């Protein structure tokens, strides 16, 4: 069997804070209102991505890995995680502020939920005027002071807010308190985990007049109370892969292609491309496929070389 670049059916998530940018900017197609997330590539339980192109159409990612584990994942991934796809890829549209939240590390998530932790990164694809993110504390604090501010509904006064624009990139280690602000469209790369502890939800109510559940007790032990640096500094280079994030769980580069780019790698890991701008044709020895902004493509580890032709900006993620 000759493997090829794989695309998957998006898994749409309706959220109280969702909007229409996934349609308007990324050409996603759905009927529901308030879609906040498009899960592009997932093996989260009950949300496993299904192949949407080529001979494997209709197979889900777990089934495909079972058939071709080394060819899909690569030896680096298998040595670290076994025959498990370890990452989750999303596009998020925040029409309103998300809740202020935190994610546990691997140790805590394993103990409490038998899950990976949730280290993640954000790449801002579009931001309205005056849009901002909430990331971390203004100054290092402690559990006692944090709980006092939470009780007094003054938590936001000790959190760091930063204005954002297209191209801004942030790395969020586990334990970082954060929230995506209204008016921001984001590409998110994270560990395969859906564990979120909600700290504060801006006192809002849902359509039935109910507030969403908070996870105060669970969050206390998960929070990193130190001031952290999260913004990534980088400079794009035409037709060159520029590193954004390198951490134990994933490596993300940005690749700005203008014209032709010959891509070569070893069979050590899968690669995922998230197209954040433009369009491109991906040519392998056995296939030729066209992709555009909003598409996410899984390159099996067994595909060692191909050509990218077009004018495009890609997030390039591997293990």
UniProtKB/TrEMBL annotation:
Keywords noted in UniProt: Isomerase, Metal-binding, Zinc
InterPro entries linked to this entry: Carb_Metab_Reg_Kinase/Isom, Man6P_isomerase_Firm_short, MPI_cupin_dom, PMI_typeI_cat, RmlC-like_jellyroll, RmlC_Cupin_sf
Xref: SUPFAM superfamilies: RmlC-like cupins (SSF51182)
Domain of life: Bacteria
Domain Mannose-6-phosphate isomerase cupin: 243-315
Gene3D superfamilies: Jelly Rolls
Stored Pfam families: MPI_cupin_dom, PMI_typeI_cat
Protein name: Phosphohexomutase
């Amino acid at each position: 069997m000759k493997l090829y670049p794989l695309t998957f059916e998006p898994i749409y998530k309706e959220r109280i804070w969702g909007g229409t940018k996934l349609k308007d900017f990324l050409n996603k197609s759905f009927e529901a209102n308030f879609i906040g997330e498009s899960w592009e590539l997932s093996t989260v339980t009950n949300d496993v991505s299904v192949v949407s192109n080529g001979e494997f159409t209709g197979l889900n990612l777990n089934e495909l890995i079972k058939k071709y584990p080394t060819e899909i994942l690569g030896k680096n991934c298998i040595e670290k995680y076994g025959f498990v796809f370890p990452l989750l890829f999303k596009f998020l549209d925040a029409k309103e502020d998300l809740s202020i939240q935190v994610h546990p590390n691997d140790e805590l998530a394993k103990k409490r939920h038998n899950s990976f932790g949730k280290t993640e990164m954000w790449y801002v694809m579009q931001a309205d005027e005056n849009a901002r993110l909430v990331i971390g504390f203004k100054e290092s604090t402690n559990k006692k002071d944090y709980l006092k501010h939470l009780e007094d509904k003054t938590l936001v006064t000790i959190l760091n807010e930063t204005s954002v624009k297209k191209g801004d990139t942030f790395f969020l280690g586990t334990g970082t308190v954060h929230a995506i602000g209204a008016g921001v469209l984001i590409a998110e790369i994270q560990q395969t985990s859906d564990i979120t502890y909600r700290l504060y939800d801006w006192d809002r109510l849902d359509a039935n007049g109910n507030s969403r559940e908070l996870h105060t007790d669970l969050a206390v032990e998960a929070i990193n109370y130190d001031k952290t640096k999260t913004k990534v500094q980088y400079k794009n280079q035409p037709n060159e892969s520029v590193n954004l994030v390198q951490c134990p769980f994933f490596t993300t580069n940005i690749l700005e292609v203008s014209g032709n780019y010959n891509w070569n790698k070893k069979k050590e890991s899968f690669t995922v491309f998230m197209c954040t701008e433009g369009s491109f044709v991906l040519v392998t020895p056995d296939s030729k496929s066209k992709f555009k902004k909003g598409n996410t493509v899984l390159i099996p580890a067994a595909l060692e070389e191909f050509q990218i032709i077009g004018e495009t900006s890609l997030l390039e993620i591997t293990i």
